[in-house]
Design goal:
- It is a single chain.
- The chain is mainly alpha-helical and 148 residues long.
- It has one domain (12-147): Hemerythrin-like (Four Helix Bundle (Hemerythrin (Met), subunit A)).
- Helix content is 85%, strand content 0%.
- It has helices at 12-35, 41-69, 72-98, 102-147.
- The structure holds fe (ii) ion (2 copies).
- The site of one fe (ii) ion has 5 residues, from helix 2 and helix 4.
Amino acid sequence: MKISDLDVKDDADFKGIDEEHKTIFNFIDKLHDIANQPKYHEYAIVILNSFIVFFVEHAIKEEQLLQHYLPAKLVDKHVSLHQDELNYLDESLKTLSVELSSINIQAIAEQLELEFKTHIFIYDKNIMKKLMEVKRTRKTVIESVRIN
Ligand SMILES: [Fe+2]
Ligand SMILES: [Fe+2]
């Protein structure tokens, strides 16, 4: 299930976040693709570096959106999950700088797929659901103030 499967299709904030999640999986697909092409193994480092830059920007954008609607405690928990993913990405880069092999690229691609499927389809989805509820409640309050 994608985040866009939530009832948020018309929401510009979610559309942007959802598109970025697709890009995250594109990076992982690229790593899978080149694992068995030794000629292009150097490219795995380039992909991973771009992935890290992209993920940092995505995490900042997502955290700002969360901060706007949700209590700090909840947001902090999610921020630390982003930090875990970032640590794993950094570790992966270190591993590849030591040994750039098919086995390593494959193992990293598989682990990243697992990490990000869990993050995006479970953690992001759950927190966006909470955010959506707050957003809806605020809208209802504003509308009822206008009516009265
Ligand atoms: Fe997230
Ligand atoms: Fe995300």
